[in-house]
Amino acid sequence: MLGGIDLARGREYNRAVEDQERLDIQASCEGDQEAYRRLVERHQGQVAGLLWRFTRDRGVLEELVQEVFVQAYFSLSGYRGEGSFAGWLSCIATRTGYRFWKKQSRENAHYEINEADAVEQPDDIDEVTPEEAGEVLHKLLAQLNETDRLVLTLMYFDGCSTEEIAERMGWNRAMVKMRAYRARNKLRAFAEEQGIWETLGWIR
User: Fold this and answer.
1) 118 and 30, same structural domain?
2) Is residue 6 one of the residues assigned to a domain?
3) Does residue 28 sit in the same domain as residue 56?
4) CATH number of the domain bearing residue 143
5) Terminal Cα distance for the chain, rounded
6) pLDDT tens track of the chain, all 204 residues?
7) Could you list the residue range(s) of the whole structural domain that residue 185 is in?
8) What is the 3-state secondary structure (H, E, C) of 106-159?
């Protein structure tokens, strides 16, 4: 026992959850809709949280979450269980968000940043909350191209390493490291140009 928690029982509980997940995946592959509903309910919060990095429009967010689970359903037979199911879904969700950004980029090919789009420097830098700094960063990242934006979003918001980003996207790690280096420089240039670098001084 530790702090009122039975570690052995906790391990048994985790195994039970993992076993149920495995059974639900197997049943889903055999066409059991109720089993797949359980998988969706178990993981939709995680998927929605990840996709919130890609859009702040709740209507679009719901569409992207649905797209992830539709794609996951039709790809389920390809899941080999070599990593966690949650990790597998994260790969699908990240790539879905990336495609959404690329589509946006094509549709807004002639879009130019104007004064209304510029990120404003908070009045008191010393009192900026993590949430406010995160919102500033989110708006600033939107000014990068979709690949640079994705790399830095995964690094700064999801805490992914270059190796994890490469694995999630199926990219070469060297490419991710190069992208991250160049993207940071672009981000700093944009921030300095708009006079908000001090707000993001914690970024390295």
Assistant:
1) no
2) no
3) yes
4) 1.10.10.10
5) 42
6) 323 333 333 334 456 668 899 999 999 999 999 999 999 999 999 999 999 999 989 999 999 999 999 999 999 988 988 889 999 999 999 999 999 999 988 877 544 444 334 445 444 444 556 676 677 788 888 889 999 999 999 998 889 999 999 999 999 999 999 999 999 999 888 888 877 766 655 455
7) 114-204
8) HHCCCCCCCCCCCCCCCCCHHHCCHHHHHHHHHHHHCCCCHHHHHHHHHHHCCC
Residue 160 tokens, joined:
């992914």
Do 120 and 71 share a structural domain?
A: no
d(CA 133, CA 150): 18
Residue 3 lies in a domain: no
* Distance of alpha carbon 104 from the chain centroid: 17
Query: Is the whole model's pTM more than 0.90, yes or no?
Result: no
Q: Which amino acid is present at 50?
A: L
Which candidate, 128, 124, 149, places its Cα nearest to that of 138? 149
CB atoms within 10 A of CB 42: 16
